[in-house]
Each structure stands twice: as C-alpha cells, then as structure tokens.
C-alpha cells in the first residue's frame, strides 16, 4: 500500500489556480489532491503523469459507448464540417430524423403515439417535463417521487429529488414532492420476498386514496392533488436499486385509476445501460413521459429531451414557444445521437449488454462469497451494485468505501505487471454502494481486470 500521493509541481500550479478562480459549487473533489486528466480512450482515462485508470463509472453513465468512440467521434467531426450551428427556431435534418427514431420506437414498444422535445441536458429536460405535466393537469404543482430518487439539481428537478441537501439553501420554487418508499429489498422488512415487499410498497401507496382524509384524493370529484409520479425504473444515485418485475405494473394500475401520470426518468439508465433502450421496458408498463439525456450523445455534445404521449404534447395543448432553449436540438448532438442509434441497431446490442452484465455480476457474487463486507450485489445489464458493509454484512460502512475509492485513485495497483488505478462511483442511501456503470463496449478481459482490481481494494480494506 502506497503513501499519500503528492501532486506534481505542474499539477499543483493548476490546483492553486483552481482554488482561486473556480467556483466550488459545480464540482466535488472526492480525493485529495484531485487528479487532473489529460486523455481518454475506451474504458480508460490517463492523468497528467500518464497513469492509466480503468473507469467503471463512465462519467455517471454518460459515456455508455466508451471514451473517444471512433464512430461517434467521426459523426461529430463530419457534422462540424457541414452544419455545426443553427438556431433552434430553424429546422435541420438531424432533429427531425432523431425525433422520428425515438417516437417510432416508442410506438412499436408501447403502442402509443408521441412526440420528442429536446433540451441540452437531463435536469433541463426534467424541467421541460414538469411544464408538460403541469400544463396537462391545469397547473398542478405537486408530484410523487421516490425516497432515494434523483432527478437533477435545477430548482424544479431538486424539488422532486429526495435529498433535502440539494435544495436546503434555496427554498422551494413551485414543485413539491411527496416521497414514497422504494422497494429496496436488502434494507426492507425481513420475512418478505422481493415480490412481496414490492407489492407491500404499492399497497401502502394505494392507501393514500382510500379516503379524503389521507390527504391527496377528493372522492367527490375523483381528483388527485398530485399531477404525476416521477420514477427512475432503477435508482441511480440511490444506489442502483433494482425492483422486482411486478413492481411498476402494480404501481401503474394505481396511477391509472386516479389519473396520475407516470414520468420515467431514463437519464442515467437509458440507452442500453440495462440491456434495453429504456430500462422501463423490463417492467411491462406504458409510460406517459420519458425523460432522457447523458448517453444519447456519449457525452460528446450536451443533448437531452423528453418523449411524451400525443395527448400531452401535441401542438394544440403544448403550442410553439411553450418552452425553449437556445441550444436545444443542436445539430452536433443530434448527429451523434443518430449515429448511436444506427450503431446499436446493427447488432443485438441488448443481448450483448445482458451477457456482459451476467458475467460481471457472477464475478461480483464470487467476491461476495469471499469478503463478508460485501452485503449485497445485484445488477441488470451493465448497471451493477456492490454494497459495502461492516463485517456483519449489513450495517452500512461509508468509511470503508471512501477508503477503497481513495486507494483506487492512487494508481498503484498491479495486475499482470501493469500498474493501474480504478475509478469507482459512490451511491446509495448511506453512500456505501459502489455503483458500477462500465462502458457497454467493455471487453471480457477488462471485466476480469476490473474484478481483480476490486479484489485488491477489498483486501486492502479488510487489512487496514
């Protein structure tokens, strides 16, 4: 185990400038001193000392298709040489064709007509979805959302994100959420199967509509005070918690009975992360709105958006100018998005992701057998979780995971003679979960390498 790493003289100059000139509000340094990176490719990034790090979080699942993906990079380069810029009030081919691709796919999968509305990122698209929902519900500003849910940090998005710390200093601005328990089985009541606990959570939610005195429902007019339920099919920042397959179909029945829209946040789990284009596809329900971002452009040029049912977003109910962003549907982003769809349609991309995820999960399960501090592992496709606990295998142990993250960033582990670092992301209700979102293009040898590096970190953690 190495000593604390010292920044190089060149890096220290930059860090001193950062400390003086950069806002601290737009980032969090999880290690000290922070690394400064200089290049990336595939599943790896390199720092200014040319030390390689295997990245198992890929920019919070924004770079699903690997760093510097040649095909997607080339699509961006070609667009730069033809139509790199155009005001969003004007049309261009990329916007129309990408909208068609998403809308036709939704029609084929859900049997619903709908339209696509673009913005520049996930939080901004959440804001647009809130406008669509409020407009369709005659201005209702109350929403349901889940404990452990994360939808962004703009004012509207943070109001439906369950962490109070994201809005503590800013007050409330319009939306408010009623946060409902999510079927987090590992930390749920004992004696229930995953499916039973899932049904229990739905039944507890349904109780809100039993009488007017439960606070959300007027039985005389059959109206709910809440407009929509915002869901991440698989919780992202909440720790990649995966509910059983019966959960959303049972929940959707309650929502439909009471005229409540289901808005599905696919910002982190969309674009094949779970082996399907949208993670909600695993659960056999029809969403009313889908919000997307991040991996649509593989992180190359910010582009997000929403798909919404025709009844919610047609020009009569949501007319021109209802909401706007200068850089929405920008041609660079739409060009990469189109190429991503073409690239993933040429093979059975979902089957490939599911096979790699099954292999990776089996490796995590083997580590769990050997290391009691791993309390839970789970995964769907290449969205995987590894919950770090004390030796009892249950009590959350944030300190140990923080130690593992720090050790991974030292860049001093050796596998087969190669010196490497390992980039991990931390999530979960107690910040004790490794949320693994490797490149979907990761190779099987790289999965094996990642498991070996994780093993080394676990050994260090148990021996410290």
List strands and helices in order, with pairings:
Layout lengths: L8 H13 L15 E5 L2 E4 L4 E4 L2 H4 L8 H11 L12 H18 L3 E6 L2 H15 L5 E5 L8 H5 L16 E5 L13 H13 L10 E2 L4 E2 L1 E6 L15 H11 L3 E5 L23 E4 L11 E6 H4 L17 H15 L3 H22 L3 E7 L2 E6 L9 H11 L4 E3 L2 E6 L2 E2 L5 E4 L7 H20 L1
Parallel strand pairs: 3-16, 5-6, 5-9, 9-10, 10-11
Antiparallel strand pairs: 1-2, 2-3, 4-12, 7-8, 11-12, 13-14, 14-18, 15-16, 17-18
Provide a descriptive summary of the structure in words:
The chain has 464 residues and is an alpha/beta fold. The chain folds into two domains: 9-68 and 348-463, Aspartate Aminotransferase, domain 1, CATH 3.90.1150; 75-345, Type I PLP-dependent aspartate aminotransferase-like (Major domain) (Aspartate Aminotransferase, domain 2), CATH 3.40.640. It is 35% helix and 18% strand. It is built from 13 helices and 18 strands. The strands form four sheets. The chain has a seven-stranded mixed β-sheet, with helices on both faces. Strands 1-2-3-16-15 form a five-stranded mixed β-sheet. Strands 13-14-18-17 form a four-stranded antiparallel β-sheet. Helix 3 (70-80) runs antiparallel to helix 10 (331-345) and helix 11 packs parallel to helix 13 (444-463). It is globular and about 70 Å long. The protein starts with 8 loop residues before the first helix and ends with a helix. The mean pLDDT is 96.
């Amino acid at each position: 185990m190495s000593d604390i790493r010292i920044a190089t003289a060149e890096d220290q100059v930059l860090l001193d400038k950062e400390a003086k000139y950069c806002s601290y509000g737009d980032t969090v340094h999880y290690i000290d001193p922070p690394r400064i990176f200089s290049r990336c490719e595939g599943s790896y990034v390199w720092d200014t000392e040319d030390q390689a790090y295997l990245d198992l979080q890929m920019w919070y699942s924004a770079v699903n298709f690997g760093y510097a993906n040649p095909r997607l990079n080339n699509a961006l380069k070609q667009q730069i040489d033809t139509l790199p810029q155009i005001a969003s009030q004007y049309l261009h081919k990329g916007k129309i064709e990408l909208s068609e691709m998403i809308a036709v796919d939704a029609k084929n999968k859900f049997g619903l007509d709908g339209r696509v509305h673009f913005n520049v990122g996930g939080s901004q698209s959440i804001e647009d979805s809130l406008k669509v929902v409020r407009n369709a519900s005659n201005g209702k500003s109350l929403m349901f959302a889940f404990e452990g849910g994360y939808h962004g940090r703009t004012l509207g998005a943070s109001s439906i994100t369950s962490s109070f710390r994201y809005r503590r200093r800013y007050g409330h601005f319009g939306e408010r959420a009623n946060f409902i328990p999510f079927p987090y089985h590992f930390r749920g009541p004992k004696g229930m199967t995953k499916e039973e606990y899932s049904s229990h959570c739905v039944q507890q939610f349904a109780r809100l509509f039993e009488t007017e005195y439960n606070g959300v429902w007027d039985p005389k007019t059959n109206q709910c005070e809440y407009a929509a339920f915002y869901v991440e099919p698989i919780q992202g920042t909440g720790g990649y918690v995966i509910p059983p397959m019966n959960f959303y179909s049972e929940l959707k029945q309650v929502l439909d009975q009471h005229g409540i829209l289901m808005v599905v946040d696919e910002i982190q789990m969309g674009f094949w992360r779970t082996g399907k284009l949208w993670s909600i596809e695993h659960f056999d329900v029809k969403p009313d709105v889908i919000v997307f971002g991040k991996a649509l452009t593989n992180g190359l040029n910010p582009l997000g958006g929403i798909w919404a049912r025709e009844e919610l977003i047609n020009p009569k109910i949501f007319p021109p100018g209802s909401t706007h962003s200068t850089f929405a549907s920008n041609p660079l982003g739409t060009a990469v998005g189109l190429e991503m769809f073409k690239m993933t349609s040429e093979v059975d991309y979902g089957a490939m992701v599911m096979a790699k995820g099954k292999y990776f999960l089996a490796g995590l399960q083997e580590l769990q057998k050997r290391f009691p501090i791993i309390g839970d592992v789970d995964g769907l496709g290449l969205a995987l979780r590894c919950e770090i606990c004390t030796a009892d295998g249950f009590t959350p142990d944030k300190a140990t995971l923080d130690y593992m993250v720090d050790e991974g960033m030292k860049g001093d582990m050796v596998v087969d003679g190669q010196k490497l670092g390992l980039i991990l992301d931390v999530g979960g209700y107690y910040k004790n979960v490794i949320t693994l979102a490797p490149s979907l293009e990761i190779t099987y040898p790289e999965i094996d390498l990642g498991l070996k590096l994780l093993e080394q970190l676990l050994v260090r953690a148990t021996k410290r």
